[in-house]
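Page 37, top half.
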Amino acid sequence: MANQGKKQSTARTSAPAKGATRSSAGNGHPGSPAPRRRPSPAVYRRRRLFVFGALLVVIALLVGGFAAISSALAGNSDPSAVTSPSGVATEGPAPTQAGTPSAGPATPSASPTPVCDLNLVTVAAATDKPAYGGEEKPLLTMTITNGGTAPCQVNVGTSQMEYLVMSGADRIFSSRDCQAASEDLVKTILPGKSETANFPWERNRTLEGCSAINAKPGAGGAYYTFVARLGNKSSAKAVFQLN
């Protein structure tokens, strides 16, 4: 009797388990889960476009960061390029620091210093009077003038000077014939200025080498010419009269 009661008890307790199994495995009962629906093709396309756009943004950020680092390392090679606040380089004058004076207008370069032109140095001859009496001695004057625009150094020593008196083609007198010694004398003549040297003539005749001669220049109203020479420069003739 006891065994039979146990069997009945077992049968009663196992039966609901089978029923529960059937109810969980069955379809259409309120407690069963709903089947999952697959996304539509439009949803797949939107997802792909979103992923592709995000990938492009990442690539652009990487490329931009690399370019910025390369530009910072290399420096700006164009001094006239100015970076705008947006990071785009635009052409224009480089900004100057505050308080730094900018360059003023270009000043004209100084004209070159004039150079002496000895071709513009001239020699002139003159006498202190146009005519002389029997006892008067003519004063022969040589004038050296700088006609250039720059100072000139000129040798006005007796080594370069000659006072020459002529009567027609007759050579009457030369200051070099009986000159005991000669010397150099270099002077600076300013533009437009002159140096003057005087020679009192004794109304005598001379020969080259200072040979002796007894003849004297004639008087009685004869005309003579005086020529002043300095180196290779000669003056025009100055005419005077001996009475």
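Page 37, bottom half:
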Amino acid sequence: MPSPNIAGTQRGFVIPIGGAEEKLNNPLILQKFVSLAGDENAVISIIPTASQLDDTGQRYATIFKDLGAGSVHILPITERADAQKQQYVDILEKSTAIFVTGGNQLRLSTILGGTPIAKAIRQLNARGVHYAGTSAGAAIVSQHMITAGSTGIVPTEGGVSLAPGLGLINTAVIDQHFNQRNRLARLLSAVSYNPFLIGIGLDEDTAAFINENNEFTVVGSGAITIIDPSNIEYSSMAEANRGDALTLLNLKVHILAAGSRFDLNTLQAHIK
């Protein structure tokens, strides 16, 4: 499940966002994140590593300040040496929330993976600091992170590429820009490897606000697709040749719009 609780503390929210979240007109997801972080008492650290645009961090800093955040810091981590710097860890240690921007999730994993920054993110979330990530920042939440894959509906052998993520969640695999980029096939391919994994497909401008009890509420204008393979009867992945369509029997699928809830422990979905 999300990063383990520490005795006497309550884990912070884990908030994967499907990308392209509304930033100007009724930015519901970002406003809720700022409120969780403490509004005028919020101390938000932004990690724009996934993006190669110079203004990404500053753009979010301006948005969070406009939404009422008390203090915002940008961590300009562009190479692994930056992720070793104690001054950046010290900034994270003083934060009430961490925000990881979109871009290329392999930049995140190759630059942050195994560094003091990655370790600090996990430890701080376990101690109550909230984590939100959009697009690439959402994908890396999973222990098993989707990096690429085929589009369409039908899953295939070789239809998805995976790499290690941050592991804030280790029983689910997350995909983003889900319906907008037709990514059902690659999420199905991911869960076909092992029915231990729950597939979570996030539409754009849609987020899962996962609380300390591993329950989440859907926030935003789109939907979240849940693929529950816990009662799967058969997957042909082991016998399939490269590129073959897969047979998957007895999958359960939920489509959850705003206000709907899902319990990652019991695998039960609930309406508003």
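Margin note: The chain is about 20% helix and 30% strand.
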